[in-house]
Design goal:
Elements lengths: L2 H64 L16 H4 L2 E3 L2 E5 L1 E5 L2 E5 L3 E2 L4 E2 L5 H12 L3 H15 L14 H5 L26 H7 L3 E2 L6 E2 L5 H6 L4 H12 L19 H8 L4 H12 L3 E2 L4 E10 L5 E9 L4 E7 L1
Helix pairs in contact: 3-4
Length: 337
Amino acid sequence: MNRTNTRGSTLIIALWALFLLTVFAVQLGVIVRQKITLVHRIDDRENRYLIAEAGIKQAIVQLRKEDAFFAADFLGERWNDRSDTFKDIRVGKGYFTVSYEYRDGEYSRTIYGLQDEESKINLNKASFDVIKRLFQAVSGLTRSDAEELAYCIIDWRDKDSFFQHPQYGAEDSDYKGLRNSYESKDADFEVIEELLLVHKMDQEVFDKIRHFVTIYGEGKVNINTAPREVLLALGLTPRVVNNILLFRKGGDMIVGTGDDDIFLQSATIVPRLSQVFDLAPSDISVLSNLIASGQFVTKSENFMIRSVAQLNNKKRQTTIVAVADRTGQIKYWREEM
């Protein structure tokens, strides 16, 4: 082999080596950039989580402050509808918003603050009739479909394996036949999402009903905060429900403002309403029976907090949903990405 061939071979080898090093360097650069991006995303997620957590803590502080001043809970308090306290509150490199959707029939609006869990129907305490009426009022189910689903819920939470109705309901045999089989729980609901395990429940109905049900508290409803659908589910007539909602709005006819009228205790509900509205004897009877059976309260103990965090100039959000009681004890905690 002459010198020219040797030099040519050496040059080719050198070029191949350079090419391979270049490819390696490019690949290494891509890997490094990916890792840097991943580190930034993890860092951003951690920051969003901490900011959302700050929103939960801020809400608990406001809740504990309020308890010292009022004998009743209503929609015009510090923990509810306060954009200066709960909307776009700056923390470090981002901000949080604590809010929920207030619903009253077809009307809804965003309220900045906490949501009263005692404004809802307690799935572990409510009777069959209350659950059935709630499904009819909220989900649009027919009477028979609402009855069937209500009995399925009763069978899920009761302590036995016997059907509560000869035609409706669901026990172990209905769940064991599923592709991913399981048994009827025969115990209280522990989280609202557990409803999706109940026979005949689907995602569409769940999304409609979830805002009106709870598993916290003693099963009594705060008449100062309950929405129309919950009051109807308890068995009140539409006329009485309208009277209660109008009474609560006060002179400006806007809920959650400084002139809201409130019921300080259950014993004053009928007298206060009778001063403003002409109640029929039948309406007074139904309302009085609910009061006598302890269905209403005017002071609440458990509240839902939904804190959404976002970093400055970035679109990604982190949401924390929690339920806390008056003392600040957390009873439920879920992070949503």
